[in-house]
Amino acid sequence: MYIASARAGTRTRLGAVPKTVVALGVVSLLTDVSAEMITAFLPVYLLFSLNIGYVQFGLLDGLYTGATAVLRLVGGHFADRLRRPKLVAGVGYGLSAVTKLVFPAVGASALGIGGVIAADRAGKGLRTAPRDALISLSVPTDQLGTAFGVHRSMDTVGALIGPVVTFLILMNLGTAPTPIFVVSFGFALLGLIVLGFFVPERPKATASPGPAPSIRAGLALLKDVPFRRAGVVAALLGIATVSDAFVFVLVQRTTEVPLGVLPLLPLGTALTFLLFAAPLGRLADVVGRWPVFFGGHVLLLGVYLLLLAPAGGYGVAVAALIMHGLFYAATDGVLSAWTGAMIPPSLRGSGLAVVQTGQALARLVSSIGFGFLLQYAALGTAVLTAVCALAVALVAVLVVTRKETTS
Q: Which domains does the chain have, with CATH numbers?
């Protein structure tokens, strides 16, 4: 396993992490306000305004979560090859921002909406690995969990604000999509401005020696057993993970809370994530990233089991959303911290992209498959299938790892 050394940068009060991490947290906060406004609006818009079927929704949601996942490899490669991760990330952020102005122009066309969603996710695919590379190269490897936890916490503040902004617009201006997309664009533009003026282009750690950047070199990292194991684990668990949009729809339907509450359900997940991302990141640095990552998926299994409870209502909904938030707090940044410590600095973007691409493609398959399942099977059957799939995946990754893996 390759363990890179990196000097800690100038510290700030926020979590005692480098300024680069804080600045990127602000960028992600603003961008997530923009993105989560759309995430909160799409289920209402697609399922209940346009009345599309679950299969179509699953396909569109799959585009939103993973159809352009291969671009993560492109973004990671160019970030390493050009040694300008900020520039590559900026292209991704800019592409996603522009799509917010295109959404209203396509109207109710499912094909048009799919195209715009694909472009938006292409932007996310391009920016994710370079952004995570900037973070991981800014801190020592023994503090990666903490750094990613702080970043994800700031990101989640945006996830809290986004649905609230959407809810307020819907309550005061009706369900017309144009105001939501225009306001979403404004937040995305602010994020681009912060990235341009407050994030340095190259962390000092990029000077560390390592293999010459290339897509082949990035994929060759899979020859390393610990790295390959992490990639396989992320993909196996990803294919058994129901997408957020479906989770929120399921919570609303199985607990029978009012439909008007649906756009606010992401707040429960986001608030829990905000409170626990940094503490669980620090815990991962202490006890090992693999145990925390695995434990997060056990919590997700608990979410699915709660959705089978015969007595619904707000209590079950709140419990499910809290556990869903804990799942993300234990897995999102922890996966990047776990795998980032295995990758040479010169291939940090490419290596992170390899794992993220595998996970995103797995979740794409999951979203499409679950859409078909909801379309043609009873709701309870669909949830029970999700429970069984995740339980099998958890056993499978234990077999793959064979013994407890620590970072």
A: 19-401 (1.20.1250.20)
